[in-house]
Structures are given as structure tokens and as C-alpha cells.
Fold each of these.
Amino acid sequence: MRAIILAAGRGSRLQQTTDRQLPKCLLTFGGHSLLERHLQRLEAAGVQEIVLVAGFRHELIEAELARLGRRSRVEIVLNPRYELGSMLTVHCAAQQLQRGGDVLLMDADVLYHQRIMAALAAGRAPVNRLLIDREFEAGEEPVKVCVVAGVPIELRKQLEPGLACDTIGESIGFFRFDEQAARRLAAIVADHVAGSRAHLPHEEAVRDLLRERSHSFEVCDVTGAPWIEIDFPEDVTRAADEVLPRLEAQP
């Protein structure tokens, strides 16, 4: 099993000062960067092959890996056009996406409990899986997953009015693909990039894969497990004041 961590973006919505601009995976909570926490959780889940797609200030990420003693154990792929968005970032890792075996595709800007990683990586390969949290704040920002009879039918921030489903939850931003689905996702991403749609979020390619129904997906409900995606300054505050204490309180 291989993990591909998407960490190329600038994180402009965080509104960091010019002299303090960091890749979001280097934000620190409880004395540990998000990147360090990712690596710890992947290792605890038995994931040995880790690919990190970097871009903005990638030298700082490489320095953090060196500080952690993991520089030689993490394969770094660079997206020099990181300003275009995450679709192109995934495309930069097309070779790693198609290398064989199950693939975990993960956003780097998430603070989360080990139970979420366990849910993603559990079980024998091959399997396709996405994670949802049913307790989320309504609005345009969360990427929503709609499920009918256990099958995910939609994955988007904005849903069509009147869309009927059994369950709706927020996507954690973590996906698992078997070898065939990973190869198909790489092809879909390549089509988006070739069609001048590299600026779109990579979830649009995952959505296309889901809606093709060519590969079956499991939906794993992790409601109750502490986590937060960090996009805005208020997310940093909430991560430190609310989510981190819950992480430290739960085994």
C-alpha cells in the first residue's frame, strides 16, 4: 500500500504574513507538524511507501523531513505549477498513482485521529474506500458525499437541489483506490489537465470515477472521530483549542 500526500499548495486563504508563509503541512499543533503526524499515523497503520507531492516552499518540507530523520524514506514529487490547484498536483504523481497496489490519496492539511487512518487503511487489498463524517456544518465549503444504499453517488461542495440520498456526510479528504481504480483515476486526471481543467480541485476527478460506476466503493463512516481540515485562520484556532485536546484525550 502506498500513500500519496498532496502538499503543494500555497494555502493563501490562511492569510499568513509574508515573513511567515509556510506550507500548511508544516503548521504545528502540540509540538508536532501536520506532516510529522501524517507520517506517524501512516507508520502505525503499516504503510511503508510514502510519496509527498510538494510545491510551494518545498525546501522547507524537505528540511522538516530531514529533521525528522525521514528524508530518505519519503519520495518527493514536485509540482512547479502549484498555483494552478490540486488536479495538477495529482497529475504530477501519475507515475506513483499507477505503480501498482492500493493507493491512499490524502490531503496534507488535516489534523486527525488515528482511528481515521485505521478506517482508511484497514483490511486486505484490493479495496476502494472513502470516508465520511455525518456531523458537519452546512454551507458551501465542505465537500459533501451523498450515499444511496451504501453506494456513493455524488461528491461535491455544491449539490443539485433536491438530490435524494440515504446519507450525506462531509468527505475527510482521504481516499483509497485499488490498482485498477488508481490507474483509471490517473487517466481521468490526465484528461482534465489536457482539457484545460487543471485548475479544478482533484475531487472533481474522483467524482467522475465514482459516477462512472466502473469500480465499486466502500463508504466508511468515521463520525465522532476528531479531525479538521485547515483552510482558514479560524481553522487554526479551532484545531488548537478544540480538536487537539480531543485527540490527546482519546487513545
Amino acid sequence: MTIRAVLWDVDDTIFDYARADHTGMSAHLTAEGLVDGYASVDQALGRWRELTTLHWRRFEAGGVDFQEQRRDRVRDFLALPGLTAAEADGWFERYVSHYEAAWELFPDALPVLDLLADDYRHGILSNSSLHNQDRKLRVLGVRDRFETVLCAAELGVAKPAPEAFLAACTALDLHPSEVAYVGDQPDIDARGAVEAGLRGIWLDRADTGGRPELKRITSLRELPALLGGPTRFGAPSTFG
């Protein structure tokens, strides 16, 4: 079936989250006087990402709400379990101010969105919150490119659960087979989309490979040709 819409992940797909996170954390640790607490910014960021994954899984499991998982990340990162909600929120907001100062789209994002604008509808499906992603897209100047923005915090279900992808298809009023999903995570994004009946596309910017069963591109510049090609599920990928 012909692809009529593209659903997009945001972080590390169209938005350079990793670079902004690294730059923001470096500035934040310096401003907070925490530089000496870690051997390097990379070590600190590694710990932050580890905690992000840990507490996001708690949120996915329904054991904690979005705001509280974020507070617990801060408490664990600082090793201060008694930090109040207000103190944790304040610390996170100061981090966010440094992180936002480094926000940028990937260089290939806007040209490809421009190229696809006339032929496909576009939406967002993100494992974040609408508050975060809607604002991010507006600051980056691309919110009007997407007719719908759906996020796990409001849906109550996160990728790779089929329900998340199907909710986005419902919002577009399209059958899953008419929708492609583009994201940087092979399992959460591409495999999850395929298992929900969409055309999952793994954006492997680091060219790591190793997943021949997935449709894979290493740059968004490869996306238009892939969308215009055969849409039969299970067809061999021309991108490895």
C-alpha cells in the first residue's frame, strides 16, 4: 500500500539531542559547582542517561508519574534522596536552561522536511511529554510542519508498544500500512513500528548496521528515495 504519511521521532532523529545534552550538562555541572564530582562530562552524562532509562522504565510500568520520575532522576544523580520536589524541580529547570541554549536541528532535517512536504502528511510520536516536545518543535521553528504531535506521557503508553503507534495512525485517520515511522532506535522505533503494522525505518546515523531485517538509512537524505520505492513489507532493504 502507498505510504501517505510519515511519523517522526524527535530526539536524535530530527533534533540533535545528544549534542545538546552534552553541551547543556557540561555548562550545568560547571554552574552548579559539580565538575569535580565526576572524572569527566562524559562520565556524568553517562550516569544521567543511565538514570533516565531506569526511571523512564518505572514511568512506562505505571509506577510513577512523569514529573516524579524526573525528580527521582535528579535525586539519584545528586545522591540526595531527601531532596524536596521543589528543589529537584529547580535543579532540573536550571539544567534545562543550559540544554535549551544548545538546541539545533540536524542539518539534514529541514531540507528533507521541505522535500517531503507536498507529497506526505507528517506527525510526531515521541516517548516524552507534549509539554516538552511541542515547545521544542516551536523553538526550533518546525511545529507547523506536523499536523499531530503525540507523546507517551499523555497517551499513557510508550513505544515500542503497538498501542502507541496505532494511536498516532488513528490521529492521522490512516491505516498503519499507509504510515512510515522514522526513528533512531532500531527496536523502540523501527521494529516497534513494523510490529504495529507500519513501515518502520531505522535512522542509523552512526552507521552501526547489524540489523538486516530492518529498513535502515544513515541520513535523512536517503528517506525520499526509500519512501518512493516499493512499500511491500519484508522486501529487501537497499540500505543494509
Amino acid sequence: MDYAIQTIISALSLGSFYALGALGIGLLFSVLRLINFAHGDFITVGAYALIVPSSAVTATLLIGDFHPALLVLCIVGIVVMLAILSYFVVFQHAQKSSPATMMIISFALGYTLQNIIVMIYGGRPKAAGIWSDLTGQVQISSGVSVQLLQLVTIAVTWILLIALVLFLKRTRVGIQMRAAAEDFRMARMLGVNGKNVIALAFILSGGLAGIMSLLFVTQTGVLKFSMGVPIMLFFFIATVIGGMGSLVGSVVGGYSVGIVSVILSAILPEELRGFRDTCVFILVIIVLLARPQGLVLTKAAKERV
């Protein structure tokens, strides 16, 4: 029973991380039909913004002495500015192109960001840990202890989800964003400023990426210029499984992928645990063969069905 509780908390923690990543992708796809494969590199940039450019293996924290709240604001602000800059400099000029063209542009942007990081910080992995207290264990009961960071990740995810739901349902600009997600052309005909809505989607997506930068560095303590690529793959898978264009589906898909990954790690024999991701991808294929539209349909997709 104790092992089951630990597994459940681990699954919810990993699912929460994937849900935030999938939500960041889903926000952009819902209004711009853009699958932003540079989203993982936005997370990488936020992580590297913590350290001083150096060739040393062990990094020196640049803003590590800041108050935690100020540190969060700084990193989120940096990534949000990067996201906004990417829209006005890159994606704005291609938003009338096909989704495939914009996806290729996002690949190029991500590769460019990786090489800029290598030019500034070098290509070697760097050790850079923050908030080491969060990596300690918390005793929940006599036989159950979990990492504090896992509980923090779950709590942060649900706080952000609730805040985003309230924003989309209770504010004027949030309602405009929902309208644009359902039918962008009709929303513009009714007076919604499309450019502002898209820019807001980039701001929200960049904010989520900035928070995930801090969670990721706290968990791993290691920086690599390409570290955003593998996690971006899981974000994309979660978005597809949940249902492209559905924000609820992005969250459902993220939790599904995270929970399945942890459960497979728990039940697979020792010699097969190295193939966990392979098993996850096989399950993804099975799910998409049975339900290619994803687990959650958007309102527009339901009407087409």
C-alpha cells in the first residue's frame, strides 16, 4: 500500500509536468494552428538564464541569491520576452502559411536557440542546482516518504490550471481567446483583435515554459543545450493524445502520458525498464489507432463529427 501511494504521487507529479508542457503547446495550436517545437528550447533558455556564461562544468548561479519570488519573476519574464520576440520577429510573418510550414520554422527556431546557447555557454553539460531543499524527502506516513518537489509540482500545476480557467472564463480577453480557438476567422469578423490574441497566447505559453524551467533545473540539477528536445517530444505526444486544439485535452494527455510512464516503471521487470519509453510509444500508437482524433474533442470537432 505504501509503495502504491508513492507510485501514485510520482505519477501525478510527472503527469503534472507533462500537462504544463502540453498546455503550452495547446495554447498556441488552438489559436494559430502552430505546433511550436521550439517550446522545449524556451525551457532550456530559461534554465540557462540562471547561470553565468562559463566553460566550467559546474556553473555559477547568476541570480541564485535572489528571493524565490523574484527569481521566478525574472526567469518567467525572460522566457516570456523570448516567446513574444519569436512571434513578432518570426511567426507573425508566417502565420498565413500552412501549419506544416510554421512547424518547420519552429524546428529551425529551436535549432537556432540551441546553437546560440552553445556559442554563449559552451556545449558541455553543467551542474547547476537551485532550491536544494525541495529535493529532500517528506514523510507522509510511517511508511511513505516522497520528494517535496513532487508535491510542489502538483500544487503549482493545479494553481496554474485554476488560474488559467478563471482567466479564460471570467476575463474579456480570455473569452476572446476561447472564441478565437473555436473559430479564428469568425472571431476576427466579430471584432476580436487577432494579433493581440495570438500575442497573449505566446505570453501564456512562455510563462508556463519559464516556470517549467525552474521545476526542471531543481529536479535534475544538470543543464544541457539540447535538454528541451526529449521533453518536447513527450509534450507533443501528450497534446496529440489529448486532442489537438483542446486545452482540456492537453491536460488530460499530459497526465495520461505521465501516469502511464510511472506505472510502467513500477510494473516492468528490471531488465525491461530501459524500454519504458518504447512501451509508452506503443501504447500511444494503439490509442491513436483506436481514437485518431484524441481523447478530448473540441466543440468544432464535435460539430464536424
Amino acid sequence: MITVENLTKRYGRFTAVDDISFTVRPGSVVGFLGPNGAGKSTAMRMMTGLTPPTSGGATILGQTYRSIPNPGSRVGVMLDAAAQHPGRTGREVLRLTGIQLGVPRSRVEEVLHLVGLTDDEASRRVRNYSLGMRQRLGLASALMGDPEVLILDEPANGLDPQGIHWMRGLLRGFADRGGTVLLSSHLLHEVQVIADELVIIGRGRLVAQGAKEDLLARGGVTARSLDDRALVAAAGASGVTATETAGGVVLDTDAATVGRLALEAGVVLTHLTSGETAGLEEIYLALTSADDREGAAA
């Protein structure tokens, strides 16, 4: 289990993580989401003892990460898959990890097979690895100690569709056997497929958390039109909360009301999705629209 309580990190006047609290339970995969710069990586570094919090804290399996004896044997961490010595082979990287953790040398070949790195690939220097191979090696390092908990920052980055499908099955199987998984990713479709719960932050603050189905079900209605600004104005005039996002206008009402508003305002609707079928991308864009670095599409 991972328990985060009022976790905060300030750098001078800048607050990177602002009083966030959530729990990741055994047997579950929790998707940890937010725009670039929202504070996800900083929060994960605090959870794993790499960055001291300004206030609040996090425990893993009932202890702070630094208090766990031989923590790599219980908590698998992958925060930066590129942080491997480029001059060593993949197998050498894992052998050194195994020595540090005190696991049998045979574990190296087990995890190489588990993450799908061939004997030829394991014998190559890490400097010659593709991004996807580095991701597999980073995950192999996290799994070396046969941990109970996984904390992974963008583990699918650089994987091809087949690799992403493989990772989905690996993490889902880990959780189904009682493991605990905290997964940060920008691949929203994959998170929607695998996650049991979601934690979404923006500008360091918690903006939503809960069971995936509950968050998706309360998504209201997402509409696209030939004049989204006019639709937002019409909604506001009728007392309906509406947010213009890159994925369309998210309205806190039902589809029939949106249709009526559009008709009265003379706005042509081109797309309408009810909350029951809303995708994670639509909900995510609505919740984090204040942090959108790109702004509205031209």
C-alpha cells in the first residue's frame, strides 16, 4: 500500500506539489495523471526518498521508503529509464542491481525473459539501446527484487503498440496477484484500459481522484460545434457550467439540455458524447484545462 498525506514541496516561492493526499491499495493500479509540470515526478521522487518534502509525507507498506530495509526488494521504482550507465550491457546493469539487492544471479535471466529482452539485446551496450529497450531494461531493474509495490513514471514511453499491450498485461497481472501499482503516463487510453482508480493533479494540486468508473460517469456531456465559444456563452446564460477544452466543450448537464441550448443559440453541433461513454481524454482535458500549455487550437 502507498499512503500520501498532505504532501507538499516548495522551492522558494514556487510550490511544485501542494498538499496532495491519496492512497494506492494492494491489488490495484492507480493512474497518476497531470500535464507536464503538474508535479507528478516531484511527488514520486518524494515518495521514494529522493526529494525531501517541505511538509506532509508518504509511506509505502506502512513505512517511509528510506525506513524499509533493502527497499528495492519490496518496492520497484522506475522514474527515469535513461538513468543507466551507457557503457554497460543490459545484463551487467541487472547483475549490479541484483548484487545490491542480494538476489540470486539467476534472477537476471528471469527478468530479462519477463520484460522481453533477448540474449542479443541483453549483451549490447546501453548506449546502443532504443528508447523502448531502455524502458524494458528500467522495468527489469524495478522487478529484480520481486517487489510488492511498483512506482513507475512513464513506463510505456517509447514502446511500440505491441510493447504497450505487453506492458498492460504485465502490470495488470502484477496487480491481480495482490501487487500495488502507481503509474504515471500521458498515454490516456492505456491508463483508461488498465487503471482501477485515477489521481489527477494540476499545478501541483489535486483536481480529482476516485474510481475510474465514477470519474468517467460524472463527466457530464462533451460537445463539439461550429462555434464552441457561442455554445459556452449560451450555457453560461442558462446557468449551466461549461468549459472549453482542446477536446471540445464539457458541460455539466445532460445531452437533451445541450441540444436545446445549441438550438436556441443557433449553434450547429458536430459531436455530442454523454458522460456514460465519455473517454478519459475528455475528462482529463476538462479537469486540467487551466494548465494547458498549448491553449486552444488555432
